[in-house]
Every structure is written in structure tokens, then in C-alpha cells.
Amino acid sequence: MVDDPAEGWQRDRTGMAASTVRVVRVTVSIVARDPETGRLGVATASRVLAVDAGVPHLRPGVGAVAVQAGAPRRWGTLALDALHTGLSAEDVAAVVGRLPGADAAQLGIVAAGGGAAVVSGPRVEAAVSAAWHDDVCVAANLMEHPGVAERTVAAYDASSAQPFPARLVAALAAAADEMGGDLRGRQSAALRVVDPATSSGETRSGRPVGGEVDLRVDDARDPVGELRRLWDLHRSFQHLLHAMNPDGLYEDLTHIEAALAIAPDDLTAVGAAALALTRAGRLHDATPFLRRLAAEEPRTALRLRRLAASGRLDPPAAHAALQLLEDPPD
């Protein structure tokens, strides 16, 4: 390790100074740590295409960083490397502040062991906003209102009863919807969460269900609203994973009902209900799900035949479901 960490940051492995290439990212980001689970997360939104491509940087058990304004993307990796050596978030912010080009850079930094900091150089485009405490920080630039960071942190703090990823989305919505967000408008958003363990458990099918989230909206008129919808689908899908038996077949109706309660229009959940109820011999209960699935996907009958042929659906049950689809609704 070099005596001054900033010296190492100025040397790119290709021999080019890391500060010579930068893409300006006008953004609002919240970076946080969940002290109960150790999970780390970044939620971000901007009026650029695919904000997820450059802003969030996370490493389980190390830290999370949002890199924006004129900061080179590589600084995210270097900040995580510095946290990994034992530097605090405040120490890393001090290192960043000494780098060439830091006057146009903005970073939000949270360490896995606790502690947060924000770097906002004097040349970052106004309105610049930053706030942090304990395990959360918000960094924003080119905002409509200078108080957006404080409002975003307040929304995060007020949502403590919600799951950690939902708190990040709620905070981002406060920045975008209540405080106006990016002065140029809206285009993309992202939610990234990493877990200190590779998985928080396994389903009965053996597929891991962990605390990690990786969702992005690259181009939309309401990217934060779309991110909320994707978060709901993610929650629904976790229930569907738990609903599978060791053979990978949908079976647990309690989890399927929970998935449908979250995302009633999701055809994956509708199909799970149709198949699980058909396998259970509850054709009457399966009927509305089968009919809806067939209305949305004309190849449903072909799928049922192939499931029967492969042994993944009893032929009598498949035949009854196919007969039902051929008969006109009452």
C-alpha cells in the first residue's frame, strides 16, 4: 500500500491518469447500509440513458459508492479498494478530495462497517445537494431544489418499517416526485443491493434466494415509477422461487397466493397458480387462471401437452385442463 492513497489513484493500470477521462453524470443517488442485515444498497436516478452503467459500485462486506458529476467511473472501484484496506468512509472522502479533478466530482460513500461521507467539488453543477448520517448518504447535482438530499434522507429514515430495498426506492421517489429531481427531467433509474452472504437461504427447489437486488430502468418517461413496479415483480418472483418443489415444479400455494397479491397481472404468477392448482386436482380453482393464461398466450395448450409428455404434469390432469380450454366459458 502506498504512503498516500491518492498517489495510487492517479495512476491507471494502462499508464494513463485516471482523472483524464470522465463522463459527467447529473444524478441523485442514495447510498445506504442496513445495520440489521449488513446489506448495502444504492438507488439512483438521472436524465441520462442507463444511469446504472456508471453510478453504483457495490462490494459485499466492503462498501457501496455512487460515482457521479465529473468523477471518473473507475473511482468507484478504487474507493471500494480503499475501504477494503480499512479506511473509513470519511478517510476515503478525504483521499478523493486531494485528487486532480476532484473539484468537479461527486461521490457518496458508505462503509460496510458503518459510516458515510459525501464528496462534492466546488465545480459540480448547481443545485448541488448532499446529506449524510450514520449508515446513509445522498448526493445530488443539477437539482431543481437544493434541499433534495435532506428530504431524501428524511424519507429513508421515515420508512424504517419497510424492507431495506423498498426504503431506498421510497427515498428515491421522494427526491424525484416531491422535490423535482433532475432539473432536465427524467430518463433512467436503478436499484442495486448486495448481501454480505451469497444467499440468505435456499428454496425447496434448491435455487438460492438471497438478499441481492439488481434492477434497472434504462429509458422511460417515469423511471422511478417503473423501478417501483420492477421491485414489486422482484418480490413476487421471490415467492415463486419458494413455491417450487425439489423438482422445480410449482407446488406451494401459499407462496403463489403471496406472489399474486403483490403482482396480480404478472403472467408468471398466473401460470404458477394455473399449474399448481391443476397438479393438485383442483381444476375448478385453476379454471380462471388457465383461461387467463390461454387468452394472453395462445400456446398455452401446447405447453400443457409438452408438460404431460415430459412427465411434469399428469396426463389425466393435462387432458382435463386442455378440455377446459376447448370448451367455451359459461
Any chance you could write out the topology, listing elements then pairs?
Layout: H1 5-9, E1 27-33, E2 40-46, E3 56-59, E4 63-69, H2 74-84, H3 89-97, E5 105-111, E6 116-120, E7 129-133, E8 136-140, H4 148-158, H5 164-178, E9 188-194, E10 213-217, H6 223-242, H7 253-262, H8 267-279, H9 283-296, H10 300-309, H11 315-326
Antiparallel strand pairs: 1-2, 1-8, 2-9, 3-4, 4-5, 5-6, 7-8, 9-10
Helix pairs in contact: 4-5, 5-6, 6-7, 7-8, 8-9, 9-11, 10-11
- How much of the polypeptide forms β-strand, as a percent range? 15-25%
Biggest sheet record: 6 strands, antiparallel
- The quaternary organization reads as single chain
SS element count, helices: 11
Strand arrangement within the widest β-sheet reads 7-8-1-2-9-10
* Terminal residue distance: 75 Å
Q: How many structural units, i.e. domains?
A: 2
Q: Which blocks of ≥5 consecutive residues have pLDDT under 50?
A: 12-24
CATH architecture of the largest domain: 4-Layer Sandwich
Name the helicity range.
Answer: 25-40%
Broad structural category: alpha+beta
Summarize the structure.
This protein is of the alpha+beta class. The chain has two domains: 235 residues, Glutamine Phosphoribosylpyrophosphate, subunit 1, domain 1, CATH 3.60.20.10; 83 residues, no CATH class. 39% of the residues lie in helices and 18% in strands.
